[in-house]
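In response to the reviewer comment on reproducibility (Comment 2.3), we provide here a single inverse folding case reported in full, input and output, so that an independent group could reproduce the run without further information from us. The C-alpha cells appear first.
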C-alpha cells in the first residue's frame, strides 16, 4: 500500500512539473482564456490568429527589437503561463498574413485580421520576408523586423 501511494505521488508530482514552455519555442500557439489566466495550444503556424513562440522560460525576458536604419524593431507580445504552481514567460510574434489588414489596438488574446476597408484597419501586410532587417519594396511605407524569428513584415496603410 505504501509503495502504491509513493508511486502515485511521483506520478502526480511529474504531472505538476512536466509543463516546459521551452518546448514551444520555434512552434506556433493560439491563446485563450484571459490575460490573468492564459492558456496556450500548439497549432500549425498557418492557423489564423496564431503566434510564433520566439523565447520561453521561467527567467526569460522579452526585449523588443531595436529600430534599424531601414525598419522599425518588432515588439514581442509577452504572456505568463501558469501551470500547477509554476510560471513561465513566453515571448510571442504574431503570425501576420500577407495581404491582410490589422487594427492598431487589440484588447483580447487574438490577433485576427480585419477587412482593409474597416475604419479600424491600421496596417496592411504587403510582404513577408524571412530575414532580419530585410529591404522592403518601395510600395510599402515601412518594415517591422524581428531577429527571432528572422522576419520582416513589409507594411503600409490600408487604402
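Designed residues, in position order:
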Amino acid at each position: 500500500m505504501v509503495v502504491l501511494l509513493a508511486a502515485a505521488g511521483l506520478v502526480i508530482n511529474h504531472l505538476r512539473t512536466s509543463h516546459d514552455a521551452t518546448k514551444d519555442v520555434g512552434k506556433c500557439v493560439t491563446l485563450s482564456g484571459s490575460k490573468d489566466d492564459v492558456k496556450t495550444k500548439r497549432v500549425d503556424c498557418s492557423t489564423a490568429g496564431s503566434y510564433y513562440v520566439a523565447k520561453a522560460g521561467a527567467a526569460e525576458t522579452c526585449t523588443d527589437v531595436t529600430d534599424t536604419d531601414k525598419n522599425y524593431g518588432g515588439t514581442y507580445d509577452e504572456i505568463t503561463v501558469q501551470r500547477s504552481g509554476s510560471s513561465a514567460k513566453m515571448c510571442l510574434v504574431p503570425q501576420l498574413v500577407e495581404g491582410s489588414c490589422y487594427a492598431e489596438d487589440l484588447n483580447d488574446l487574438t490577433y485576427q485580421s480585419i477587412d482593409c476597408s474597416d475604419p479600424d484597419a491600421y496596417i496592411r501586410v504587403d510582404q513577408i520576408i524571412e530575414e532580419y532587417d530585410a529591404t522592403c519594396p518601395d510600395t510599402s511605407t515601412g518594415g517591422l523586423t524581428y531577429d527571432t524569428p528572422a522576419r520582416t513584415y513589409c507594411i503600409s496603410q490600408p487604402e
